[in-house]
Amino acid sequence: MNLTTEQKKTVIASFLGWTLDAFDFFLLTFLLTDIAAEFQTDVPAVSKALFLTLATRFIGAFFFGMLADRYGRKPILMLNIVSYSVIGALAAFSPNLGIFLALRALFGIAMGGEWGLGSSLAMESIPPSARGTVSGILQCGYPAGYLLAAVVYGLLYGQKIGDFTFGWRAMFLLSFLPALIVLFIRSHVPESPAFVEGRAQTRPGLLETLRKHWRIALYAVVLMMFFNFFSHGTQDLYPTFLKKQHGFDPHTVSWITIVANIGAIVGGLVFGALSERIGRINAITLACVIALPAIPLWAYTTTPFMLAIGAFIMQVAVQGAWGVIPVHLNELSPGSVRATLPGFIYQAGNLAAYYGGPYQAGIAEAPGGSYGYALALFAGVVAVCIIVVIRFSPEKRGQVMTVLG
Questions:
Q1: What does pTM read for this prediction?
Q2: According to its record, how does it sit in the membrane (predicted)?
Q3: H-helix or E-strand containing 371?
Q4: Other CB atoms closer than 10 Å to residue 207's CB: what's the count?
């Protein structure tokens, strides 16, 4: 993969933006039980914060994407990163559950813009032959953010510095850190060459483009609904499963989650690159097939070692499939709305899958239920659904990207 220095910096910036976005999101998954205790409620009530974040992300994808298609990928990406950093940190000051949920809904709007902006900036800036590998790298930002959250949780949570204790509120203050990426983007990352080339030319608007391509847009939303069930259904409640069902301490929860996210990074890199050789559709199919035999290890074993093995394999599969998505959606999207449409489709799929977390938690905590059963049910059903649905997708590997059309 031969990239220029500027192209490498663009990929790094897009990767870091998504990594720290995911870091902010996944901090919450480690803190559900602690927030519930402070606000004197239960885990399903607090897990509505996950639902609200997912449900509002499509608003941010649309809003920030429209701005980026008009004013450029680079300046709107910087605005977006500052927005999610500040809103994420404000959750530390929530006086009650209602305010906390409202702030997480606003965080979802800010979070919703980053993926589409970062992926369009990167995909429009690199050669077609590098897209599969870069797609895997970009999507690895998501598990890398989860991994970073796990490391920070394991190292800092509950630690004391004098009279100060790192509780859940202090953890959210770390959300200020992503804003530092803006300095790097401003100084080192150029605007998308495709956007610069097409800036002065007349391009069709979003509504006109959707009327022309509504079938592929609708199909992609359904596909992304299943993909979001796949990722969030295997990740969001896993730390709670380890704590509540197995009684593991924060250190054990942290290292199992770290192992899982190492698997996710391996999967994204391997399957992103593999998609250049066997195609986007075949790579996604293969990854989902691997998830099925991992379910018993991942959800039903009892020792930390075996659960870690299962979590590693499961996340190789989940993020292996996801590693192909940035390039696949960008290749399917018309160039005139590439900053808006891929991100909007991605987040509209999130909206369609919005109630997965609370629904899973409800199944897990119902009489006769368990977190292991709820996790296994989601993973198995959704993996099969993706295998079926992805076979209907167009394959546009290597397509030339412009901002016209």
A1: 0.76
A2: Multi-pass membrane protein
A3: helix 371-390
A4: 9
